[in-house]
Write a structure and sequence with these properties.
single chain; 438 residues; Purple Acid Phosphatase, chain A, domain 2; 5'-nucleotidase,  domain 2; 2 domains; six-stranded mixed β-sheet; 25% strand
C-alpha cells in the first residue's frame, strides 16, 4: 500500500472514530474556592462578593449550559464571619446561585454543630463524601448530587483532606473524621457512573492529594480543587482529565469550557481561564452590595477602631515575627512560635484599625504557655537561637498549634496552659502600646 493510501485509510479511521457533531455538547463550569468570608474588596481593589456576583452573572449568561460550584472554605477570614460564626457568609453566597459546594477545613472552625445551620442558610446542596461519624453517617447527609444541565447529567462529589483533624481543633470536630479521600471518591464514582455523563469532584484537598486524585481516579473527568492558596497558572491534565483551581479570597472566578462526547462519557476538548475580579472596573451587583453593607455596618463599631500606624509594609513572614514578639510580651515567655499558616493577611503601610488585625488573625485562638526543656524544643522554635539542652524555657504558642503539635510545631507531648487571652487581642494591644510600627 502506498504512503498516500495509508494516509487516506488513517484519516478515514479517525473520521469513523470521531464523535458526530450532534453527539458533542458544551458545558461550562464556573468555580470558586477559599472565599474565606472576604465580602469586601481588599486594599488593592480585588475581589468583594458584590463584584464577584456581577462577574458570575455575566459569565453564566454567556454560557450554553452552565454549573456554578465551590470547593470549600466559605467561612472564616473576616470579622463578620468570626463574630457571627459564619452564617452570614452562607446567606450572602446564596445569592450567587451555586449548584453545589463542598466543605473546607475552615468551615469547621465554629464546630460541626454549625454545619446544618450553614446548609439551611445556603439553600444549595453541600456535598461531602468522606466526613463521617463512627456509625458511618455522612455529616452533610449526601456524598454527591446529580444535576441535569440541559440534558447533560453531571455528578458532583465532595471531598475533604484525609488529615482534617490536623487542620482543626479536635473538640470542634467531636466524633467526626475524614476517610481517605481518593478511595472514597472512587467508591461513589462507581455508584454514580451509570447515571452520569460527567463526574466532577469538588476537592478541598492538600496538594499531594489533589495530584493523587487526578492520576488515580480515572472515573473522574474534572476536579475543581481548593485549600491550596498558591496560584495555579495552568490547569493540570492527566489522560484527558482536568484539575482547576482559582485564586483564594474571591480574587478570581474560574471558567472551564468543556466539549463532551455524551455516549462515550468523555471530555473531548476543554479551555480554562481565570477571570480577575477587579472592583475598580467591575460594578457591584446591587442586591449583594446592600447585604454586604448591612453586615459590615454591624461590625464597624468593633473593628473600625484606630490602633496605630505602620510606616512600612509587614508581609506575612515579617508579621509572623511581630506576632511572636507580641505573645512573649503578653505572657512573659522567653520564646514564642506562630504557625505560618495562621497568618492570613499582611499589614499595609499607613494608619491601622482593628479590622486589619482581624483580617490577619480571624481565628478565635488563645495564647497558651508551657515549660519546655531546651532539648525538647523543636527546630521550628529554635531556628537561629542558641538554647541550652537542660535549661527549662517558657514557650508561648496558640491553642491550635498546641492541639496539633506534630503537624504545626514539629513536636509532640508538650504540655501547655491556656492564658485565656485571645491572640488577636494580644496583637492589637501590642500595636496600641507602640502606636507606630517602623
Amino acid at each position: 500500500m502506498s504512503r498516500v493510501c495509508r494516509l487516506l485509510v488513517a484519516l478515514l479511521l479517525l473520521a469513523l472514530l470521531a464523535p458526530a457533531a450532534d453527539q458533542l455538547r458544551s458545558l461550562t463550569i464556573l468555580h470558586t474556592n477559599d472565599l474565606h468570608a472576604r465580602i469586601s474588596p481588599d486594599q488593592e481593589g480585588r475581589g468583594g462578593f458584590a463584584h464577584l456576583a456581577t462577574v458570575i452573572r455575566r459569565e453564566r449568561a454567556s454560557a450554553e449550559a452552565c454549573l456554578l460550584v465551590d470547593a470549600g472554605d466559605f467561612a472564616q477570614g473576616t470579622p463578620v464571619s468570626t463574630i457571627y460564626q459564619g452564617v452570614p457568609i452562607f446567606e450572602l453566597v446564596r445569592r450567587f446561585g451555586y449548584d453545589a459546594a463542598t466543605l473546607g477545613n475552615h468551615d469547621f472552625d465554629y464546630g460541626t454543630e454549625m454545619i446544618p445551620r450553614f446548609m439551611r442558610a445556603a439553600r444549595f446542596p453541600i456535598v461531602s463524601a468522606n466526613v463521617v461519624n463512627p456509625q458511618g453517617r455522612l455529616l452533610t447527609g449526601r456524598a454527591y448530587v446529580i444535576k441535569n444541565v440541559q440534558g447533560i447529567r453531571v455528578a458532583l462529589i465532595g471531598a475533604i483532606m484525609g488529615g482534617l483533624r490536623g487542620f482543626s481543633t479536635p473538640e470542634r470536630l467531636g466524633e467526626w473524621r475524614a476517610l481517605p479521600p481518593v478511595d472514597t471518591v472512587r467508591k461513589y464514582a462507581a455508584e454514580v457512573r451509570d447515571r452520569a455523563d460527567l463526574i466532577v469532584v469538588l476537592a478541598h484537598l492538600e496538594a499531594a492529594e489533589q495530584t493523587e486524585l487526578l492520576r488515580g481516579a480515572p472515573e473522574v473527568g474534572v476536579i475543581v480543587a481548593g485549600h491550596v492558596h498558591s496560584i495555579l497558572e495552568l490547569a493540570m491534565e492527566h489522560d484527558g482529565r482536568i484539575l482547576v483551581r482559582s485564586a483564594s479570597y474571591g480574587r478570581e472566578l474560574g471558567r472551564l469550557d468543556l466539549k463532551l462526547d455524551l455516549p462515550a462519557k468523555k471530555v473531548v476538548s476543554w479551555r480554562w481561564k481565570r477571570i480577575p475580579i477587579n472592583a475598580k472596573s467591575v460594578p457591584p451587583a446591587k442586591d449583594v452590595a446592600v447585604q454586604v453593607a448591612k453586615w459590615d455596618a454591624r461590625v464597624d463599631k468593633v473593628v473600625n477602631v484606630p490602633i496605630g500606624e505602620a510606616r512600612s509594609e509587614y508581609p506575612q513572614p515579617r508579621l509572623k515575627s511581630l506576632i511572636e514578639e507580641a505573645m512573649k510580651e503578653a505572657t512573659g515567655a522567653e520564646l514564642a512560635f506562630m504557625n505560618p499558616g495562621g497568618v492570613r493577611d499582611r499589614l499595609r503601610r499607613g494608619p491601622l484599625v482593628a479590622r486589619d488585625v482581624w483580617n490577619v488573625m480571624p481565628f478565635d485562638n488563645t495564647v497558651v504557655v508551657g515549660k519546655v526543656k531546651g532539648k525538647q524544643l523543636p527546630a521550628s522554635v529554635t531556628a537561629g537561637k542558641a538554647v541550652e539542652p537542660e535549661r527549662e524555657y517558657t514557650l508561648a504558642i496558640n491553642d491550635f498549634t498546641a492541639a496539633n503539635q506534630p503537624t504545626q510545631l514539629g513536636a509532640d507531648g508538650l504540655v501547655f496552659s491556656d492564658t485565656g487571652k485571645l491572640l488577636r487581642d494580644v496583637i492589637v494591644a501590642y500595636i496600641q502600646k507602640r502606636q507606630v510600627l517602623e
